[in-house]
Amino acid sequence: MTAQHPMVRLAGVAKRFTKGKEMISIFDHLDLAIPRGDFIAVMGPSGSGKTTLLNLLGGIDRADAGEITVADQRIDGLSEGELAAWRAANIGFIFQFYNLMPMLTAAQNVELPLLLTRLRKKERAERVQTALSVVGLADRMKHRPREMSGGQQQRVAIARAIVSDPNLLLCDEPTGDLDRQSADEILSILQLLNGELGKTIVMVTHDPAAANYAKRVLHLDKGRFVERELAA
Amino acid sequence: MRSLWLQVAAVTAINLKSITQRRWLSLSTVIAIALVVIVLLAFLAMANGFQRTIAGSGADDIAIVLRAGSQAEINSTVSRDQVRLIEDGPGIARGSDGKPLISPELYLVVDGIKRTTKTKANLPLRGIGEQGSELRKGINITAGRMFNRGSNEVVVGKALLREFEGLDLGSTVSFGATRWNVVGVFEAGGSVFESEIWADLSVVQSLFNRNNIVQTVRARLTGPAALNELKSYSDNDPRLKLDVKSEAAYFAEQASQTSDLIQKLGWPLAIAMALGAIAGALNTMYSSVASRATEIATLRAIGFGGFPAFVGTLAESLLLAVIGGLLGAAATYLIFDGVTASTLGGNFTQVVFDFKLSPWLIAEGVMLALIVGLIGGLFPALRAARLPIVESLYAN
Fold first, then answer.
1. Where is the ABC3 transporter permease C-terminal domain (chain B) (predicted)?
2. Same-domain check for residues B159 and B195
3. Set of chain B residues whose Cβ sits within 8 Å of the Cβ of A112
4. Is CB count within 10 Å lower at the N or C end of chain B?
5. Single pTM value for the model
6. Mind listing the pLDDT tens digit for each residue in B239-286?
7. Under an 8 A CB cutoff, do A60 and B6 touch?
8. CB–CB of B304 and A84 under 8 A?
9. Is B3 in CB contact (< 8 Å) with chain A?
10. Which residues are B119's β-sheet partners?
């Protein structure tokens, strides 16, 4: 099943940027398959295209060529509106700086993706409670981001990412702004989400210690992947 | 559809809750819009107050007779013979003594001094016939007494007394070469007559060398319908080249000319200021979008559409505009409503009136504020809706 239908499949993907009059190629012909339930860390030097890859997988950036299939859906040909709806149903984003709405409480932040569903208010509240419980913040529902530590804010961001039960979690340097202890807590939660709930996770990181939490590490360099298996 | 409205409500709530983060910029926009509304409403309240004073002066059952083609009393003349012919006209009410209720009148311009500015201004001196006071409704002497016929005495309208000096009860004033005693103060239901000085017609004619001439004739009609009878009587007599109209219609014409002029001054000034306020609103809203770029991009990444971002930004702009509009209306009400002013009326004499705001005028002010908010928010809202997600996510 996973062999025929990977969660992510990239075939011949090219991505170029224009800088002034110069055309810079990030990927020329990138192929990749990520099985369902995998937890991949993507590493590589700055400018190697790690975040660009994440943005392409999440449907917030467009490839110049090639096919991108995520959760059995070809997304490279979708319109902006279709992409937005697709993201809402399939993708959970976790950012380095959490990207929470500062004026909303933790519960309100987590509820945001559910506003895109048909769920009633009571059901939404139950889902929010569950998601915050998973990340250990059920007692912080009414706190605003400024009233929480960085680690707690990132946990709220994780709750927001998983609350609508997406197929794929995309994490961009999720521990880049945290101390070691908080980083380990966050990575443990990601590992739990992968191991216990079967979430497929792609995590971009510079931190080898963070990469150790993943099942596989892909090194991206000069537009190509170099894979390195990790001991569980 | 339900999801779309939930998105719109969520994004709008996020925008509005974050206004405090841009409080000074938002406050400057609110103040700019409030100033626009104050300027507009001050002019409109002035025009409205003027119009209410003048238009409220005339009665439907009083006919005013002027020389054919005269736009105002000041440039009309009616001869003594014509007055006699009008006395015999149809549709004119008669008093208990059987005499027709008419008042030939002279309307002259005399000098007065404004209490506030100490500047000279034109005041109306009206010589009224024997029935001049009785045929008008609502005339009451509030202090002193009515002038005696045949003497150089005057009574002064209470609005005029409030605005101009030297006309106090018991004082003596000089009009032309003659001195007059102020023997009474009258009210006239807030109408334009309260901006006049009244004296006996024959004395005014004599002292101002207008012996055989009056300017208008006022006649109480048996009813509003009798106006047409008097009109056709006048039209069919070649000796009467006169215009006959109801006093209400006459004052409505007089009011519209000046109030139109006031409005024509007020609107362009308010619109010019509104352009400045729009620039301010644009600046505020572009700053708002820029400061929320990461939030907007995050919501878009989560799956929110561009439309909620558009509506949320526009809602913020409109909220600032409504606050500015209401603030401006409240300030105008507190500062200007009921303030007494005087300006030149159709007879080139001062008309004293009160600034008067009305709910409809306030609505006009708030509408202008909303237009400022709409234009000021529209382009930033479009920018918010089209924000490139990737660039904005990593902008900060």
1. 270-388
2. yes
3. 10, 299, 302, 304
4. N
5. 0.69
6. 888 889 998 888 878 777 777 777 787 788 888 888 888 888 888 888
7. no
8. yes
9. yes
10. none
